[in-house]
Amino acid sequence: MIEIAPSVLAADPLFVYRDVSRIVDAGADLLHLDVMDGHFVPNLSFGPSFVSALKSGFPEMRRDVHLMISNPERHLDAFIKAGSDEITIHLEIEGDLPALLRRIRAAGLRAGLSIKPGTPTSAIVPYLPQCDLVLLMTVEPGFGGQKLIQEALPKLGEMRAAGFAGTLSVDGGVNGENCALVARSGATRLVMGTAAFTAADPKAFLARCRQF
Ligand code: DX5
Ligand code: ZN
Q1: CATH superfamily of 3-210
Q2: What mean pLDDT do residues 125-137 have?
Q3: Catalytic amino acids?
């Protein structure tokens, strides 16, 4: 069954607790937290304290932390201590990816790698055995509310063909119109920001998106 992971980046910053409560009550499977450093991506979002706030506010919800930061090495311990359940780093950073993935798993968390739309599947294949999840970006990372880049979707099948059996998550521009295509392309998790938090009837919306 498809997991739905609303991206809390799209919640109203003045009413985060209200918006997250609404989407959790509507049946979200886990919370996706988009951490941005203003360097790896041109936007800034939130840090470890926000992760721990969500853990205390919604202890029953797993936290899928997406680090769009250039130097995860420096911040990894803080995000682990803050209560992340899964941590995804970007393949495109300068850093020792195997060592970082090992550190995440050694802390008992699920480890993920994310690739931008322009990064080919061949670049991530060597790291797949160290990943519990792959986060396929279908927008240039940095901002919610963008249009899904369909040309990135075949990478899902390419990763399965390369033997990856873990979670295939898609992040960026996923909505009620394209979620069938994304699911049929092989996604097992949909990250949804704008579409999830603006749905008039979130319960019906989530049910419709996970039926594929
Ligand atoms: C981009 C962010 C967004 C967010 C989803 O860096 O990662 O993709 O999670 O936002 P929507 O669903 O509004 O595109
Ligand atoms: Zn994300």
Answers
A1: Aldolase class I (3.20.20.70)
A2: 98
A3: 34, 171
